[in-house]
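[09:14] KT: can someone run the structure on this one? pasting the chain below
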Amino acid sequence: MRIFIVLLLFCSSSLWADSQIQRHWDFKVLVDDREVGSHQFSVIGGQGGWSVSSTMEMDFKILRIKQITYQHHATEQWQDGCLVHVSSHTKRQRKETTLQASLIASGLSVITENSDRVLEGCVRSFAYWNPELLQGQRLLNVETGTYIPVTVSSKVSAQDNITHITIAGPKISIRLQYDASGDWLSLQTNLKTGAVLKYQRI
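[09:31] RB: done, structure tokens below
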């Protein structure tokens, strides 16, 4: 298992080794194979510093009864593999929430409507776009401000050389796929209702 992770990180490092990069990922979001929205990611930067922008929109019904609307936009600034600034705005149904985080002397200050806390050490988010940044004991949810304990496991399929990563934590199990170069291909997780949410690369 350790060899698989090392191989993936080597491929991922080479993918991000350019002095200046600009990458974009565009996904269809599906619930039980029904298209319900989209999620886009853009990354600009290099030499250890990246600016990340992500936008997600969903609109669908659960069990053909409850209408779910969701809009989320976040920007992140990374330096040397750690978050230094985050700004996010989310609208679920009619409820709107915001998050602001910035690096101060004692750590990453994370402010939401319900909390104001400082996270020590190198803080990372669910940076699916770069699997190297998923390695850690906790990841920050940039919508809620929750700092979630996680376990990350990885394996490579011998048939197609696709790397499968699972992020497991309290009430979450997120399955990701990457090609041989470390480029992000897909995401899958289960919703509280039991439905399966998927990202399909466009």
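[09:33] KT: thanks! The first helix runs from residue 2 to 15.
[09:34] RB: yep, looked fine to me
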